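2024-03-11 09:14:02 DEBUG pipeline.ingest accepted 1 chain
2024-03-11 09:14:02 DEBUG pipeline.ingest length=267
2024-03-11 09:14:03 DEBUG pipeline.predict start
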Amino acid sequence: MSEPVLDVRDLTIEVAEPGGPRALVQGLSLSIARGEILGVVGESGSGKTLSAFAIAGLLPPRVRVAGGEIHLAGRRIDALSDADRRPTRGRDVGVVFQDPLSSFNPVRTIGSMLIESAQRHQRTTESDARDRAIQSLRQMRLPGENASVDCYPHMLSGGQRQRAMIALALINRPALLIADEPTTALDPTVQLQILALLKREAADRGCLLITHDLSVAAAICHRIAVMKDGRLLEQGPTDRLLTEPEHPFTRELIASAPSRRSLMAAL
């Protein structure tokens, strides 16, 4: 078998508190192959987003990786210095955040942020970076002759902003795409469009999909991992996990989730 794009081994994440460190995630192990979508599901506070941020090197202050290892394309990245870790974000790992309106700089055009990222990681000219930005936005089906490259975030709809966020995450062709609740704030029709885009783009890389909605994960993910209270309860191929769940909490999630048939048919 080829080397996984992402290999997380026994990951532990802690937060510093007055009484001493408190574990937020304990003993998380998972891997993602190229062309595979892994869905991590669980209720709010289960540690799924925190785990994704640890992989991307985006943990908030006072929170740190306290144990385990994170390997990206065969290279251990959790032990890198901040200076060495910083270039991996945007170049090797692309992140799609839940709320693109708050993630984008409101006083900068969409295109300027894509251009800056391309110049930083690809060492290209501004003109070439702009052409690359327009191409990336066109691939996401943004409207206009130049695919909204000169638009400000507030000028786009919620679905269009999310498409632009995906374009930003992918402009440097990262090996791993992390999508953190990418469809939560979208209406059902736009949700389907974004999921179809993620499914298409995952074909050339590994994809980690963070969601509280089991039906979303079931519709596009090859495998699903279930988390609760900072621990991984179980993981496995999507069809097996849905038909033969081992943990009671997984069975509860399945019982409460809407049918995935309509999502799968649309995708």
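2024-03-11 09:14:41 DEBUG pipeline.report Residues 106-172 form one domain.
2024-03-11 09:14:41 DEBUG pipeline.predict end
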